Amino acid sequence: MPKLVISLLGSPSITIDQRPLDAKTYKATALLAYLAVNQQPHTRLELATLLWTELDKEKSLAALRTTLWKLKQAGLENWLQIRRDVVSLVKDESVEIDIIRFQGLISQCDTHGHHSSKVCPVCLAPLAEAASLYHGDFMKGFSLRDAGEFDNWQSLYSEVLRNDIRQILEKLVRGHRAQGEIERSILFARRWISYDRFNEDIHRQLMSLYYSSGQRSEAIQQYRDLVKLLHRDSMKPQPETNQLYDQIINEETERVLSSQDLETPIFLATDIENSDEMWANYREQMVHTVARYNGIVKECATQFGGHVVKQTGDTSILYFDKGQPLHCVLAIHKRLMRTTWTVNTIPRIRIALNTAEHKQPNLKDYTSDIYRTERLLSAGWGGQVLLTSQVLNVVDHPQNIQVHDLGIHMFKDLREPLRIYMLAHPALPSREFPPLQSLSNYRQNLPNYPTAFIDREMEQANLADLLSNENCRLITLIGPGGVGKTRLALQVAAQQMNNFKDGVYFVPVAAPKTPDLIPSILAQTFKYNFFEQKDPLSLIADFLREKSMLLVIDNFEHLSQGGVFLSTLLDNAPGLKIIVTSRELLNLHEEWIYEVHGLSFPPQNSSDPIEQYSAVQLFINSAQRVLAGFNPNSEDLAAIARICQIVDGIPLAIELATAWIRTLSCKEIAIEIELNLDFLSTTMRDLPIRHRSLRAVFEHSWNLFSEEGRRTYRNLAVFRGGFTADAALQVAKASPIELATFVDHSLLRRVSHGRFEIIEVLRHFAEYKLRESQEDFDNAYTMHSAYYTDLLNSNYPGMMSSDQVRSVDAIRTEIENIRAAWTWTVDKRNWADVEKSMYGFIVYIEITGHYADGLEVFSKALEKLNSRPAPELEWLQANIKLRVAWMQFCMGDHPSGIQKLQEVLDKFSQLGARLEIGIAYYFLSKANDRLNLSQLAIEQAEKGLLIFRDEQFSGQRHVRSLTAHLLEVYGLALLKLDRVKEAEKVLQESLHIHQELGQRFGSVHVLEALGRVLTAEGDISGALALRLQALKIAKDFGNKYSISILLNNLCHIYTIMNEYDIAIRYQQESIVISREIGHRWLTAIGLNNLGYIFLKHFTDYNEAIRLYMESLSLFTAIQDQRGVVYTLHDMGMAALEARQIGQSRSYFLDALNKANLTKSPELQLYVLSSMAAVYLNTGQPSTAYELSYLILSHPQSGTDAKQRANFLLGEIELAMTEAQIQDFTLRGQSTDLEQVVTELLTQS
């Protein structure tokens, strides 16, 4: 069944099955709106009088008849009920009217069983849907100047609806705030304020909400915006507003929670120290003190997302499943300080926080968790805030918070020990506290570390599983020096205390030179004296025989011969388990191997928040210890990410890097590390000497190898991004046995798909050793270059055939090595190899869209060629320049790209290189099509196709591929000139060739172009299917450039379908990707599209202008004048819809001026078609008519410009006599484009 959709909230939109209704005149739109809103029959005379006020009865009825006939012709015959005297609109499921739905949703809440001023959680969903329907004021931007009756009705009804949306938004703000959903509340408050700008109550609410969510600067700015607004009318803020502002400035009001859920619920226990004594001495005052204190606790809990689940006397238990518990702690202490107490002093309170072991459906199921929190509270002292490590991992950390490790403690009636931390903060009491009041007689000697343990949750869980396995008794944590083996082992050991009744012990063995000394070290650890004249090993074995114990033996790599000693202990002590940390394997039968890698760090070009990576967290945590108040900005975070990448997330390297934070910026630290590995060193005395520099760590491992092993290992430094065993053998002469040995010594990692990799800091170290011999260095890189150049060349044919996916994947896997090989070849000026490998590299870049990387490596090659020009290299030089030009264009540098392409075309013409001339025409045509210079693109495509189809070239496979690509460009250019059938034929030929050649990726943009054909023919669903198919192929190949373009185009098609939420999602994803690959042109396009959606869907003029301005800034930066013109034009249209006529005219004139500089009549006419609407809105119909007539008669007018001009002419002619029409037509016929543009710009 066809669907009629009438949208009147915002700019009027009427569609039939998602196709815009061609209503011809504003009066037709007004008639439909009136019938849709009133939902009842109206007499013909009533409608005629409403819409044609200035005409007599006969003429107005005639005009109504004409309008009804036009509406029937436009496809509304089945929905209009036209009888002799009355007219109405059908009311059934085939008609969807946004206002009717809007009012129905309001009614749901009004009849919900409570007073209409109240809001309950059930109301929030229908109210939010109603708010989403309100895209702007009723029929925004629509006006009938010659129909006063209609204008009055529209104005009154608009105010009714405006009042409705104010009430809806006010309820949504209150409702979501009550639910603790502050971000949602802010979103609706911002919308509310746009409809009620002088309502100070909403300004105060928004200030409070901003501050509550930690956005203090936004709260302050909101107040300043209000002051400016009121100042225009010589008004001042109300006293309550000023008072709130002062509180925010002085931070005297507490923040409310963020609504973010916590991964694990948290319990907070608090009480007053020595309250029994205080009751005895101040009984009457304590009644008021406890009541006031309990009130403060309850208020702070509510503000920060918790609630009181138990309150007995002065003891309270709070439960948080969302919010900010640590902020709550600070708020309680601040309130204590600001409160006047009836007792002689401020109560000294204790606070303890602990996580629940598991989420439970009911609070009553948390009995054991609450008891554990109370036990922790009982160990503290007045003023102390105690918490477990798990709490630190799941809560927001307030600024300036510090954490002190108080070690592992046992508590009464608790089976497992807990590692306890204490908070320090300027808002908390600052004093020395006695030792915790816990049971501290557990047998353990695990050292305390000054820093919190970060992440490694998966490793902890894996090792706990291994220790629970009765067959696993010896675990070797293997990894390079500084990777965090010791810290992980200690963390796991601390969690195992309850499982070993005789204790958990740490045994460092870095100092002894021989295994013989290990028994003595163990004896010292256990405080066990050798009284018998027996073998020390036998005595230790006897001591451990009946023990249930876990040993952590640290730094065992240099005592590998002592593995037999460990076997003896395990054989004689069945209750013993051992964790060993080592840089190499023990090679024992009992050994279970667990590899330890660096902390997680951000991959290159990642758009994810980098703070989520544990390496970054460690850097920030360590830096804050060195430099109080360290708070990294965006530039710092980018540098921190780079540091973590360089050092592969190795904790020691990160901590050594942060030691410089007081002297150097993060960016400077990153640069120094890349230049010199010795930079990572420290003089801190609490670090072992072997850990005071990263080089010392690596030298230790290096010295364990033979000279032959060192020579092989340093040759591996030439690889980038991993390598196969075959590559290692061919390039570095490293046998599989040698590779296995390096893996066993933590100098290599075996990764998936039979590949090996060397972590970057180790690679730097090995390359430093390789550079000690220049001859060896050159030989190694020459072998590497030859191997990967051959690999690239061997996969080139596959990328041009049905084997495309496999070949592209093969190159993608080795792209870092290929790029390094290309760089070496270029540096050595081996131009023969460059020419051979050039084509494979180019095809790979086109398929994957890695234009930024390609531009970098090809530009360097062009630089080398330009530095020493030679006649025999002119052809290669021109080919390299051609690719540089195209990649520059693809990255948004259109002027430079076009200029270079033309220069290359001229050069190939001089050289008589006919095929290359065709290729240059291909790239020029493609570039000009992107710039919407369609006729020029067609001419260049036809010249290129003439060459490609010459029998001299047409049989060559790569020329057939070029023909398919050029046909795609040709078809797109034809389509833009509305030559739809020609375009479809050409595009089908292109698709056929790609399929014939088996080039799956080649079909991506052809399918997208065929989708445009279907869109032009009105088949929206078919167009959508083709574009989604193209997107899937692009994703299969990982081509982010194409993915971004396709997502952008999908946004367009969903906008046509009025599926704005989906459109926004696709557009935002496109922008994220374009920014990730550094493509400013695509980003600018995406921002422009978003601006349109925010204007049309949300009627958010300010946000639309902000997005347009950001887009304009990017277009200006890349010197894309067409983009500048289009964006300024769109800003003018936005201002016109917001009825800011003066601002609109200013934007349009700026756009016209920029269009004039491009010398493009098509662009000038495009801007003039919208400027005509400004003149019509400002009472200058003659000027509007002349411009519209000029646009319709000019041969270079585009489709959009003509449609706008045609619509305006229809509107103007309805209000004119025949004589006026003839007069305006004559004036329009004599209008000259250049003269009009000059006059308009001069008048401005």
Element layout with pairings:
Layout: E1 4-7, E2 13-16, E3 19-20, H1 26-38, E4 42-43, H2 44-51, H3 57-76, E5 80-82, E6 86-89, E7 95-97, H4 98-110, H5 121-133, H6 148-178, H7 182-195, H8 200-212, H9 216-231, H10 239-249, E8 261-272, H11 275-281, H12 283-303, E9 306-312, E10 315-322, H13 325-338, E11 349-355, H14 367-378, E12 385-388, H15 389-394, E13 402-409, E14 418-424, H16 457-468, E15 474-478, H17 485-495, E16 504-508, H18 518-526, H19 536-544, E17 549-554, H20 563-572, E18 576-582, E19 591-595, H21 614-626, H22 634-646, H23 651-658, H24 666-675, H25 694-702, H26 707-715, E20 723-724, H27 725-732, H28 736-744, E21 749-751, E22 755-757, H29 760-770, H30 774-799, H31 804-813, H32 815-827, H33 831-848, H34 851-867, H35 874-890, H36 894-911, H37 914-930, H38 934-948, H39 957-976, H40 980-997, H41 1004-1016, H42 1020-1037, H43 1040-1056, H44 1060-1076, H45 1080-1096, H46 1101-1117, H47 1121-1137, H48 1141-1158, H49 1161-1177, H50 1181-1193, H51 1199-1214, H52 1218-1229, H53 1233-1243
